[in-house]
Design goal:
- The complex is a heterodimer of chains A (111) and B (120).
- In chain A, strands 2-12-11-6-7-8 form a six-stranded mixed sheet, with no helix packed on it.
- Chain A is globular and about 40 Å long.
- Chain A starts with a strand and ends with a strand.
- Chain A contains no helices and twelve strands.
- With 111 residues, chain A is mainly beta.
- Chain B is globular and about 40 Å long.
- Chain B has 120 residues and is mainly beta.
- Helix content of chain B is 0%, strand content 51%.
- In chain B, the strands form two sheets. In chain B, strands 2, 4, 5, 6, 9, 10 and 11 form a seven-stranded mixed sheet that branches. A four-stranded antiparallel sheet of chain B has the order 1-3-8-7, with no helix packed on it.
- Chain B is built from no helices and eleven strands.
- The chains are: A mainly beta (111), B mainly beta (120).
- At the A-B interface, β6, β7 and β11 of A face β5 and β10 of B.
Chain lengths: 111, 120
C-alpha cells in the first residue's frame, strides 16, 4: 500500500495568516495525462469531509481561492492563505493512484 | 443536489454482523464508482472499500478483506456494505462517498455517516 505522511500533525495560525501542510507519498502518484492522483479534504467536527483540491492542484467549484495545492510525484503541499475562522478543521491528503486509496494521518489547523 | 444518506449502523457485539446502506440521489448513480471510508474514535480517515459503477470490480483494504462485502443496486440507487466478524477495531463512523468517475478518482461527495459500535 502507498503510505501518505503528512506534516505537521497540527499547527496554530493567526487569523489572516498562512498555513502550509505537507504530504509525502511513499510512491510516485503521477500518472498519464500529466496528472498527480492526489486530493486534499477538509474535515470539520460533526460534518462529512469535503473535497477541496483534486489532481494535486485543481480547486473544486465553490472552494475559496485562498486554498491552493501544489507539488508533483511524491511531495505535495496544501496552502491556506489569509486564514479565516471557518478554516479551523483537520486536513487530509489522499492518493487515488491505486487502491487502497490511502489517506494521510491528518493535520489539525487551529487559530 | 447530490445527496448520500447512510443507514444501518448501531451497536453490535464482537463477532457480529451488520448491513449498512447508502441511498443516493441527485446524480446518475449507475455512472459512478462508490467508496466507503471510516473514521474510528480519535483516528483519521481510513479508506475501506470501493466498487465500480457497474459492480463488476470491487476493492478492499487489507484490514477488512474477507470480512466486508460491498455491493450496489443501481436500479434502486443504493450502495451497501455488509460487515461480518466485527471487532472493536471496526468501531467507527462509516461514510459512503461518491467517486468523481471511476474508482481511481477523488471523492467529491460524502454522506453524513453512520456509526457502528462494536461492544459487548
Amino acid at each position: 500500500d502507498i503510505v501518505m505522511t503528512q506534516s505537521p500533525a497540527s499547527l496554530s495560525v493567526s487569523l489572516g495568516g498562512r498555513a502550509t501542510i505537507n504530504c509525502k507519498s511513499s510512491q510516485d502518484v503521477f500518472y498519464s495525462s500529466y496528472k498527480n492522483y492526489l486530493a486534499w479534504y477538509q474535515h470539520k467536527p460533526g460534518q462529512p469531509p469535503k473535497l477541496l483540491i483534486s489532481w494535486a492542484s485543481s480547486r473544486e467549484s465553490g472552494v475559496p481561492d485562498r486554498f491552493s495545492g501544489s507539488g508533483s510525484g511524491t511531495d505535495f503541499t496544501l496552502t491556506i492563505t489569509s486564514l479565516q475562522a471557518e478554516d479551523v478543521a483537520v486536513y487530509y491528503c489522499q492518493q487515488y493512484y491505486t487502491t487502497p486509496g490511502t489517506f494521510g494521518q491528518g493535520t489539525k489547523v487551529e487559530i | 443536489e447530490v445527496q448520500l444518506l447512510e443507514s444501518g449502523g448501531g451497536l453490535v457485539q464482537p463477532g457480529g454482523s451488520l448491513r449498512l446502506s447508502c441511498a443516493a440521489s441527485g446524480f446518475i448513480f449507475g455512472n459512478y464508482a462508490m467508496t466507503w471510508v471510516r473514521q474510528g474514535p480519535g483516528k483519521g480517515l481510513e479508506w475501506v472499500t470501493a466498487i465500480s459503477a457497474n459492480a463488476d470490480s470491487t476493492f478492499f483494504a487489507d484490514s477488512v478483506k474477507g470480512r466486508f462485502i460491498i455491493s450496489r443496486d443501481n436500479s434502486k440507487n443504493t450502495l451497501f456494505l455488509q460487515v461480518h466478524s466485527l471487532g472493536a477495531e471496526d468501531t467507527a463512523i462509516y461514510y459512503c462517498a461518491k467517486n468523481n468517475a471511476g474508482w481511481l478518482t477523488p471523492l467529491d461527495y460524502w454522506g453524513q455517516g453512520t456509526l457502528v459500535t462494536v461492544s459487548s
